[in-house]
Every structure is written in C-alpha cells, then in structure tokens.
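Input/output pair, single chain:
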Amino acid sequence: MLRLGVLLLLVASFAASATPADAGRFTLQGTVTRVVDGDTLHVQLLSGRVERIRLLGIDTPEVGVCGAGRATAASRSLALGRSTTLRGDATQATRDRYGRLLAYVWLPSGDLGYQLLRRGLARVYVFDRPFERLSAYRRAEAEGRGKVTCEG
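Output:
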C-alpha cells in the first residue's frame, strides 16, 4: 500500500510539473504603443489590454552599450504605431521572469526580430532551448554580421 501511495504521488507530481507541448503558442493582434529598447515593446491588444513584449530569439545591446541607440531607433522606426501580430512559440515559455510576454512580433514589413538581425543590430539569443525560428534567425544574423561597428 505504501509503495502504491508513493507511486501515485510521483505520478501526480510529474503531471503537475509537466507543461503542455504548446504552452507558449498564441496569436494576438494589437498596435505597438511604445518601444522601450531594441527588444522590448509595449503593445495594446485589440481587447484594450497593454502587454510588455520581449522579442523571442534575439538580444539587442543594453542601454549605454555600443549599438543600443541604433537598435532602439530601428525598432521604433519599424514598429511604433504599427499594427502587429504577436505569435508565441510552442517550444518556449509564455512569459519571462519579468512578466513580459515572449513573442515574435510580425509587422506589415515582416518579423521584427529577423529584420534587426539582418541589419546587424541584434544577435541570436537562445535562453534555455532552441526556438522554432532559430535556423532563419541564424541566417539573418550571419547576413547582418559586421554591418554595425563601434568606434572610439
């Protein structure tokens, strides 16, 4: 009886900690209302709720680091005020540790993260496991490599 109880406890524990395969998959529509930096935006969803978004699969320089201003300016130019489709990735979490929604940001001009990589303003960023667009992002990063330099 004790063995059965332990087994049931283990099964229940595993079930509670398992996440559905598509936990991060979602599609939302909205408008970009603010660009915080190259890889963080605010989007007002069609429901009226405003979400902080962290672009999946890329990292841009932090404020004060060479290239940060250019990455932020590019994101602002490409995205601010534009309609967007936010897409989650089934291989990733829905939110990061800061509560930001993790998403690919699709604009009328295409995938924002991909565009930043192609311009040399971002690098591919894999948090804990590969993401769906990794191959495409690596190609874009290779194309953008060396386009932006820092002097002085």
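Residues 1-21 have pLDDT under 50 and may be disordered. The two ends are 73 Å apart (CA to CA).
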